[in-house]
Amino acid sequence: MSGRVTQSRRIERAGVNALRALLEDHDQIVQEIDGGNDYGEDLFVMLTKDGERTGVAITIQVKSGNKYKRAHSYAIPVEGHANDWKNGLLTVLGVVFDVATKQLFWANLTECLESSEEAPSWIAVPREQELNEDTTQSFLALTHKFVEARSQRRIEEASLQVTRLSGTSGASPSFVGRKREQQAIRDMLTTMGRRVLVSGMAGVGKTSLVDQVARHHDVSAVFSGGVIVADMHGFSAHRTRMASPGIAYGPLLSVLGAPGDEIPRTAEGQAALYHRTLDALDASGNPVLMVFDNVAELSQVAELLPRARTHGVVLTSRSRLGVLEGIETINLDCLSPEESNVLLTQILGSEDQRLHAPDPIHDLCTLCGHLPLALSISAAILKDDVDLTTDELLAELREEKSRLDVLHFGDTAVRAALQVSLARLDCAMRDPFCRLSIHPGSEMSEQAASAVLGVSVPQTRSLLRRLSQASLISRSSVASRWRMHDLVYLFAAEQCEATVSASDRQQAFSRLAEVYCQASLNADLTLRGTPEGNPPQFQSIIEALSWLDLECANLQASARFARDADLTEHAYSLSMHLIVYLDLRGRITEGLQSAQIAYEAARKERDAERQVRALNNIGINLTSQGKLEDAVRTLRKAAAIAERIRFLDGQCDATVSLGAAVRQHISPRAAIPILIDAVKLSRENRDPNDIGASLTNLGSAYRESGLLHQAAAALSASIPYHRASGNRRQEASAHAGLGVALSQLGQQEKSEECFQKAFTAYREVQDEAGIHLNYINLGHTQLKSGKIKDARDSLHRARRFFRRTSHHHFEANSLGLLGAAEWMSGDIDQAQIYYEEAIRIFRGIGLKESEREMRAALREMLSGRSS
Prior knowledge:
Strand content: 5-15%
Strand order of the largest sheet: 1-2-3-5-6-8
């Protein structure tokens, strides 16, 4: 990507630089407006007179280039800024820079719009209003006069709530959580720069937190002049209610103790008295803490900040505001699950019996996203309706499309708070914000967001950063990833559905699905040991697994969305690319769901080959769940379809999987003929991966049938094929099976060597299930060698893993071997506990043969004790 500055960018900068230089030469204070708070203005200017700030500020929109030139004048486009320029807090001026002549021309955009019944598309900038060294003072005087008059009108129309907190009231003992943030703000106020911005999304509890800190005795001790709180109404539903310095001076002076008859009528006079009053408090050793709540724009408070650094300042805002020297920022997040529970309990009252159901309360906090506003509304609903159960409220909240409707009590609503945040967002940012909800998940990478928005990754990053400055999205804990609060995500989805056409939404999702399909394919191939690309996208199995750990939920949601939208190609591919990963992670229920989505997609496409592959994976997952009768039926169907359409590769896979299922469902001997057929088919297909898999499964069937020499031969023969195909996972399985066979043949040393090779390969591919299956096999071998303590360690590891991952068959196998270990050590009571638990599990999953074997072992042990 080129790092060159474009010509248009140089022209734009030329105009801004020329105007800034001119104004600064005349002692005006100029700041460039940060992009995240851009409402169609470029410069923020604090006006001065005789070297002193007047308390008056303006903003300026600067345009440069020939497209703003007319035959006898210039013009500035209004675009989507009419409301902001007309009703905004500050007067907005427009300046055009003529690139050819290097001249500046100006117009009062706010005045033009206020005097027009309908907003024009362009506002004329006359040549007579040139801005240069000779005209700057006249320009400043006219501007100052207009701003004073406008400010006076707003003062007459508006009121500002300013209060003084009692220094002896103390912090509220009922306030929930935020201990770390409270301490950080207290430290900043009492030991550091004493200026803090607390930012965060709507409803996160910024005002409550600051009120708690301001009432703390440590803070009261430092600010002996008291705590003054002014609500600046920056996020009111109507921008005309926003407080400006001109509106704020009078009420602030009253609370600071200035007699009413001594407060000047003009904003300039009030500003001077305001700062003299604060300076006097500083000189007398009585610093104050100024809290400006609900600040939307830097211009609301820039002229109100005390000059003396002994005074403290706290701002709260949903935005990060602009560049303000000496301000430390605290970004407030939602409550922890524990804090959410406490908040609900506190509002409802601990005697409320509905709080005694921990799971529903936990789910309620989760559906509220641990957002204090949403939690408070939910608690208020429950408190108001004593007959409403938590389960009933949960049922309402689980309906995503109506969740924001439910989170509404009286005149308080999550949606209303978010609508104000959206209204305060720059017009150009509203569409990207809404479109992000097309991504089927509230956390996403910059690459995924780029696909949804249809712009480059650098452009996307800039857009995301600007949305984060408005607290509508935030950075994830992982680099280059962003997350949206679940309730904000639902709100964005509502807005997207209302403002973006269905075809645009589908095109955006299709771009995203293409990105996800390619990346998930590359990850899947890496896990299978056959990465593509030069260089491949993922440099190792660990890297591929890490990516899938992050993206799995998004890929699953994308597959479901694609299925529901009849985007069958995407639904199939996304689902199939997850199969190996979910198996490696032991997530067999999700693996089955993915395989079923793939099968539905293949059926809609009428693609028989894909149906075979999906059915094969359904059968494998059913086998892992112990649903063996269903597995055998599904795999027979897959093999039959493959044979009918002469799909040899699919027939090989389905026959191998069928043999594995029959081995468990009927008997290992019943599986041997099926697996011999699988070996023949795979040799005919000449695929080393299929040959290796069929030989490994055949070896396992031989071993479990007591045909140990045939087992060792088949398993040994499979290993070179696995190496040739690069399938380290299958190679690990072959080593493990060979280890068991050799152990049963009495070759213990060679057996343990095989187990160690299996561990190495399983760990290389991060196959936790394989690792713990190997612990079962190793434990069995250790028992045969009389290493009971080592066997216990191996088998307990396996049992804990398979219990955690709901692999009940293998959990029961571990328990049976632990029973044998305790029997060998003489602890018959503990052995009986293990055997009975294994019997219960085998009976529960329908493995009657395994249940019979376990009962026989238990009877033999108990009969030996009785004799």
